[in-house]
Every structure is written in structure tokens, then in C-alpha cells.
Amino acid sequence: QVQLVESGGGLVQPGGSLNLSCVASEIITPPTIMRWYRQAPGKEREFVAVLNGAITYYTDSVKGRFTISRDNTRTTVYLVMNNLKPEDTGDYYCNGDFGGRAYWGQGTQVTVSS
């Protein structure tokens, strides 16, 4: 059993920044693919970013603004979000595969508004 716990969400003004964290109860090894998803109010959950070893990829709407990374303890994945826009508002979820099974965090809410 693996637990993923997101944190760092909150209310921020447009153009501001937030740093999200996803803490895993198991060590995130290089073969483990970690992803961030988000779900805006009334919309379907969408892919945001993925970390696969040293490879990262982002959905077009966040390229150049968001950065996904892993800390040196290999227990935490981050999503650094800069130049936030109102359309970035939503619940952000961490996702990863451990032992061939997919796990999700409970989500952390991000609101970008004046």
C-alpha cells in the first residue's frame, strides 16, 4: 500500500506562484512515473505534467510556467507553478505507479483570483 499526500495549494493572485508537494510513503525510484493532474470546477480531470526518470513533459497550457521535479530523498515530487493564471484554478492531484499499481493523492486546491 502506498499513500500520496499533496500539499501547498491555496489562493494566489494572477501572476503569482505556488509550490505543490506530493509526499509518497514509499521511495520513488527512477522507473516510477510520477504525474500531476488537475480538475477545474465542472470539468474533467486533465494531465498537467509527468516525471519519468530524468524526462519531463508538460501539457501545452503550462509549458514554460510549471516545473515538475523530485527531491534528493526520492520521497517527494514537486510542482513549481509560476505566472499563474485564473484558468489554472482547480484541484491538483499527484499520481504514480508503485509495484504495477496506480495510486492517487487526495488533491490540493489551487485558486488563482484577484
Low-confidence stretches: none
H and E string: EEEEEEEEEEE
Q: Tell the overall outline.
A: globular
Overall helicity: under 10%
Radius of gyration, Cα only, in angstroms?
13 Å
Question: Total number of β-strand segments?
Answer: 11
Structural class by helix and strand composition: mainly beta
Count of helix runs: 0
Short description:
The chain contains no helices and 11 strands. The protein has strands spanning 4-7, 10-12, 18-24, 33-39, 46-52, 55-58, 66-70, 76-81, 90-98, 101-104, 108-112.
Would you write up a description of this structure?
The protein is an all-beta fold. 0% of the residues lie in helices and 54% in strands. It contains no helices and 11 strands. The protein has strands at 4-7, 10-12, 18-24, 33-39, 46-52, 55-58, 66-70, 76-81, 90-98, 101-104, 108-112. Strands 2, 4, 5, 6, 9, 10 and 11 form a 7-stranded mixed sheet that branches. A hairpin with a 6-residue loop joins strand 4 (33-39) and strand 5. It is globular. The mean pLDDT is 94.
